[in-house]
Amino acid sequence: MARAFKDPSEIIDVIQEHLPVLYFVFGRAKTEELAVELGKQWDFLNYDEKQQVRQIIKEAEAEYPDMFIHRDRAVLRKLLEQGIGYHHAGLSPALKRIVEHLYESRLIWVLFCTETFAAGVNFPAASAVFDSCRKWDGREFRQLLNREFFQMAGRAGRRGFDEQGYVFILINSDFPEDTGFFSEKKVEMVQGRLTVSPNTVLSLLMWKSDHEIEHFLESNFSAFQKRRRLQETNQKISEYKNTIDGLNKHFCAQRESVSCPLTRKKLKRELKKLKSRRYRQRPGSQTRIREIEELLTSLKKKKCKKVSCFDAARTIRDTSNKLDFLQYKRKQLIAEANRYTTDFYNMRDLLERLGYVKGREFFPRGRFALYLHIQEIFVTELVFSGLIEELPGDVVAGILAGVDYTPGRREYVQAPPYDIEPINKLRAELMQLGVPGEHLVWSPVPGYIAYAWYNGEDFEHLLQNSNLQEGDLVSVIRREIDLLRQMEKAAAENHVLLAKLQGIRRTLDRDQVKVLF
Question: Given 3.40.50.150, 3.30.1330.60, 1.10.3380.30, 3.20.20.80, which CATH number is that of 371-513?
Fold first, then answer.
């Protein structure tokens, strides 16, 4: 688009024949800002449609009366009655459901959303608009990958309604190179990933034979991809070696002698280097200069057709550099191809040192961790240290909220009113025993959320004591509920612990965060 668009109203004015539209934005706050901006000038619904929206909202509010109260969501309610909405992970589950319902009912004509909405196969649109083709991936701002772009662009075009879909991209004059020009032929290959976690090792030891374990470690998709790249690299190495062998046939038996033009050229380059200001004063330089000069004058240069030799030598030099790189890459690929086997035995050895297993024999810690799928070692040690049984339920709720939690850079939550030193001490002890940091991920930051919720505080209280959005708060508590379910299965034989874990879960699982099956 040649024009410079200042706000979404101008864009919608240009593409209004191709609505509804999914307007992709890479930032929660911006989805809301753009929706509000569009709502100042556009209203897509007639009277009857507005009545439908109000009725749907009324029915939703009967179940969740305060769904539009928090974080000024009343603005969203007004926008929905205009056929405009926004959708991102910070919304409460109830709000996300109502936005999705209205969109499916064709009562939202412009939906500002983040890329996660593109995963919904039931949410096609006539058009897709990209506010930008740059995104923050957790480490840096970068251009969208081809597969990311086409996942979102693929929402454009509704079967049975549109002959074709339309995709519009806003070009950022500061980063024109990061816009457009995506190719389906260049869609990035899906990369297999396998994490050899404590649960992986325990499950394999419990249920699989040695032969089955070996097959699993060597035949998973990720290992297959690495072996295939290793085969391709070996083939390329063989081709480079054949090329070098073929080029060596250009040279005669005197190639390494001083009379060979190639050797003489090499010696002259060395001589020029040694006579330079940087090298001529170095110890041994003058001696080597005299040696080279004597060699060059003692034998006459051989008269031959040296052009082909020079060309061959140059090609050999370039090919050898490529060969060196590929041989280095091959070493890496061999190590990566064997990585899962190495990781398995390293983790098995760690679990044996910690007293979880010995060979195929499972000890209490190992049987407990077998039912966990997140931070298995840390959670198991929390239990076997006695902290879970000894501490009050609200404190346990606060502690478990921090399991496998990494707070954002600007995230704020009120500090929890309990002592976290026992947790830090436990983690330090486990590190001294050789447990890697990635198996001890824990943060005190979300602790107050679960602590307050356990003690009966309402959602507004959580919002007032943090800068998290509704969806983030729900996610913190629901993740803990899932962890508690895992721990309950692991603690089935310990009736006291089981009752405590069930009590914490049932206390947390209420109102807005209630997990529905």
Answer: 1.10.3380.30
